[in-house]
Amino acid sequence: MTTYLAFLRAINLGAKRVFPKEDIRRVVGGVGFEDVETHINTGNVRFASRMRSRERIERTLEDAFLADRGFEVPSIVYSAAEFREVARQMRELAEANPGLARHYVYLLKDELTPERIAEIEARDDGRGRMVVRGRAAHALLQPGYQDGTVDPLSAAKLLGAATNRNANVIGTLAEKWC
Q1: What is the pLDDT of residues 92-146, one digit of tens each?
Q2: Rounded Cα gap, residues 39 and 178, in angstroms
Q3: d(CA 77, CA 98)
Q4: I want to staple 83 with a disulfide (CB 3.0 to 4.6 A). Which of 78, 101, 147, 154 is the partner?
Q5: Residues 6 or more apart from 145 whose CB is under 8 A from it?
Q6: CATH T-level topology, domain 2-80
Q7: What are the residue boundaries of the structural domains of the chain, listed by start?
Q8: Strand blocks (E) in the chain
Protein backbone atom coordinates (compact mmCIF):
# COMPACT_ATOMS: atom_id res chain seq x y z
CA MET A 1 0.00 0.00 0.00
CA THR A 2 1.13 3.50 -0.80
CA THR A 3 0.47 6.55 1.34
CA TYR A 4 -1.06 9.53 -0.45
CA LEU A 5 -1.96 13.07 0.53
CA ALA A 6 -4.91 14.83 -1.08
CA PHE A 7 -5.53 18.55 -0.99
CA LEU A 8 -9.10 19.63 -1.59
CA ARG A 9 -9.77 22.92 -3.32
CA ALA A 10 -12.52 25.45 -2.55
CA ILE A 11 -14.15 23.89 0.49
CA ASN A 12 -15.34 25.53 3.72
CA LEU A 13 -15.27 28.96 2.09
CA GLY A 14 -18.92 29.83 2.58
CA ALA A 15 -22.25 28.46 3.66
CA LYS A 16 -22.76 26.40 0.48
CA ARG A 17 -19.41 24.60 0.20
CA VAL A 18 -19.18 23.17 3.70
CA PHE A 19 -17.28 19.89 4.03
CA PRO A 20 -16.26 19.11 7.63
CA LYS A 21 -13.17 16.98 8.12
CA GLU A 22 -15.23 14.21 9.76
CA ASP A 23 -17.27 13.92 6.57
CA ILE A 24 -14.12 13.98 4.43
CA ARG A 25 -12.74 11.03 6.44
CA ARG A 26 -16.05 9.16 6.08
CA VAL A 27 -16.21 9.66 2.29
CA VAL A 28 -12.54 8.81 1.69
CA GLY A 29 -12.86 5.66 3.80
CA GLY A 30 -16.14 4.83 2.09
CA VAL A 31 -14.48 4.46 -1.32
CA GLY A 32 -12.03 1.92 0.06
CA PHE A 33 -9.02 3.99 1.07
CA GLU A 34 -7.46 3.04 4.40
CA ASP A 35 -5.78 4.74 7.38
CA VAL A 36 -7.60 8.01 6.62
CA GLU A 37 -6.60 11.12 8.58
CA THR A 38 -7.32 14.81 8.16
CA HIS A 39 -5.47 17.90 9.33
CA ILE A 40 -7.34 21.11 10.18
CA ASN A 41 -10.50 21.96 8.31
CA THR A 42 -9.02 23.18 5.02
CA GLY A 43 -9.08 19.94 3.04
CA ASN A 44 -5.87 18.09 3.89
CA VAL A 45 -6.29 14.31 3.96
CA ARG A 46 -3.88 11.38 4.16
CA PHE A 47 -4.79 7.81 3.24
CA ALA A 48 -3.36 4.54 2.00
CA SER A 49 -4.32 2.83 -1.25
CA ARG A 50 -3.34 -0.01 -3.53
CA MET A 51 -4.22 2.19 -6.53
CA ARG A 52 -1.14 3.39 -8.40
CA SER A 53 -2.62 5.95 -10.79
CA ARG A 54 -2.75 9.46 -9.34
CA GLU A 55 -5.35 10.44 -11.93
CA ARG A 56 -7.55 7.48 -11.00
CA ILE A 57 -7.28 8.34 -7.30
CA GLU A 58 -8.22 11.96 -8.02
CA ARG A 59 -11.22 10.88 -10.11
CA THR A 60 -12.35 8.44 -7.42
CA LEU A 61 -12.18 11.14 -4.75
CA GLU A 62 -13.84 13.81 -6.90
CA ASP A 63 -16.70 11.49 -7.90
CA ALA A 64 -17.28 10.47 -4.26
CA PHE A 65 -17.15 14.08 -3.02
CA LEU A 66 -19.63 15.20 -5.69
CA ALA A 67 -22.00 12.37 -4.82
CA ASP A 68 -21.79 13.16 -1.09
CA ARG A 69 -21.79 16.98 -1.19
CA GLY A 70 -23.62 17.84 -4.40
CA PHE A 71 -20.80 20.11 -5.58
CA GLU A 72 -17.46 19.53 -7.27
CA VAL A 73 -14.37 19.32 -5.06
CA PRO A 74 -11.18 19.43 -7.13
CA SER A 75 -8.61 17.16 -5.48
CA ILE A 76 -4.86 17.36 -5.93
CA VAL A 77 -3.06 14.14 -4.92
CA TYR A 78 0.61 13.52 -4.10
CA SER A 79 2.33 10.36 -2.94
CA ALA A 80 4.04 10.80 0.43
CA ALA A 81 7.41 10.69 -1.36
CA GLU A 82 6.35 13.42 -3.82
CA PHE A 83 5.08 15.60 -0.98
CA ARG A 84 8.28 15.09 1.01
CA GLU A 85 10.13 16.52 -2.00
CA VAL A 86 7.78 19.54 -2.14
CA ALA A 87 8.54 20.20 1.56
CA ARG A 88 12.28 19.83 0.95
CA GLN A 89 12.16 22.32 -1.91
CA MET A 90 10.11 24.69 0.26
CA ARG A 91 12.76 24.61 3.00
CA GLU A 92 15.52 25.09 0.44
CA LEU A 93 13.77 28.12 -1.07
CA ALA A 94 13.09 29.59 2.39
CA GLU A 95 16.79 29.29 3.31
CA ALA A 96 17.84 30.88 0.01
CA ASN A 97 15.36 33.76 0.51
CA PRO A 98 15.66 34.96 4.11
CA GLY A 99 13.27 37.63 5.35
CA LEU A 100 10.19 36.58 3.40
CA ALA A 101 6.90 37.94 4.72
CA ARG A 102 5.00 34.92 3.35
CA HIS A 103 5.75 31.70 1.51
CA TYR A 104 2.75 30.05 -0.10
CA VAL A 105 2.96 26.75 -1.95
CA TYR A 106 0.46 26.18 -4.74
CA LEU A 107 -0.09 22.45 -5.18
CA LEU A 108 -0.83 21.76 -8.85
CA LYS A 109 -2.97 19.05 -10.35
CA ASP A 110 -0.81 18.91 -13.48
CA GLU A 111 2.74 19.89 -14.42
CA LEU A 112 3.02 23.08 -16.42
CA THR A 113 4.59 23.55 -19.82
CA PRO A 114 8.02 25.22 -19.96
CA GLU A 115 6.39 28.23 -21.63
CA ARG A 116 3.84 28.59 -18.82
CA ILE A 117 6.56 28.20 -16.17
CA ALA A 118 8.55 31.00 -17.82
CA GLU A 119 5.46 33.22 -17.87
CA ILE A 120 4.77 32.56 -14.18
CA GLU A 121 8.36 33.00 -13.06
CA ALA A 122 8.56 36.31 -14.97
CA ARG A 123 6.06 37.82 -12.50
CA ASP A 124 8.83 39.12 -10.22
CA ASP A 125 7.86 42.71 -9.42
CA GLY A 126 9.81 43.55 -6.27
CA ARG A 127 6.96 42.47 -3.97
CA GLY A 128 7.78 38.86 -4.56
CA ARG A 129 8.37 36.19 -7.12
CA MET A 130 7.13 32.77 -8.19
CA VAL A 131 9.29 29.67 -8.46
CA VAL A 132 7.88 26.52 -10.07
CA ARG A 133 9.25 23.09 -9.20
CA GLY A 134 7.37 20.15 -10.72
CA ARG A 135 3.76 20.24 -9.51
CA ALA A 136 4.41 22.97 -6.94
CA ALA A 137 4.61 26.73 -7.43
CA HIS A 138 6.12 28.77 -4.61
CA ALA A 139 5.00 32.36 -4.02
CA LEU A 140 7.92 34.02 -2.24
CA LEU A 141 6.51 37.29 -0.92
CA GLN A 142 8.61 40.13 0.47
CA PRO A 143 7.65 42.44 3.34
CA GLY A 144 5.20 45.04 2.08
CA TYR A 145 3.58 42.75 -0.50
CA GLN A 146 0.17 43.17 1.16
CA ASP A 147 -1.75 45.52 -1.04
CA GLY A 148 -5.22 44.18 -0.39
CA THR A 149 -5.18 41.59 -3.17
CA VAL A 150 -5.47 37.86 -2.71
CA ASP A 151 -2.99 37.13 -5.49
CA PRO A 152 -0.48 40.02 -5.51
CA LEU A 153 1.61 38.52 -8.32
CA SER A 154 -1.45 37.69 -10.49
CA ALA A 155 -0.06 34.21 -11.04
CA ALA A 156 -2.79 31.94 -9.60
CA LYS A 157 -4.90 32.08 -12.77
CA LEU A 158 -1.95 30.70 -14.75
CA LEU A 159 -1.50 27.57 -12.61
CA GLY A 160 -4.48 25.51 -13.76
CA ALA A 161 -6.25 23.47 -11.10
CA ALA A 162 -4.38 24.22 -7.89
CA THR A 163 -4.80 24.95 -4.21
CA ASN A 164 -2.38 26.65 -1.88
CA ARG A 165 -1.12 26.13 1.64
CA ASN A 166 1.25 28.27 3.64
CA ALA A 167 4.76 27.07 4.46
CA ASN A 168 3.81 26.20 8.04
CA VAL A 169 1.08 23.80 6.91
CA ILE A 170 3.35 22.20 4.29
CA GLY A 171 6.08 21.67 6.90
CA THR A 172 3.67 20.32 9.50
CA LEU A 173 2.09 17.85 7.08
CA ALA A 174 5.44 16.60 5.80
CA GLU A 175 6.62 16.01 9.34
CA LYS A 176 3.36 14.44 10.48
CA TRP A 177 2.49 12.30 7.45
CA CYS A 178 5.64 11.64 5.42
Answers
A1: 999 999 999 999 999 999 999 999 999 999 998 888 999 999 999 999 999 888 7
A2: 13
A3: 29
A4: 78
A5: 101, 102, 127, 128, 152
A6: Alpha-Beta Plaits (3.30.70)
A7: 2-80, 83-177
A8: 2-8, 34-39, 44-49, 75-79, 102-108, 128-133, 136-141, 162-166
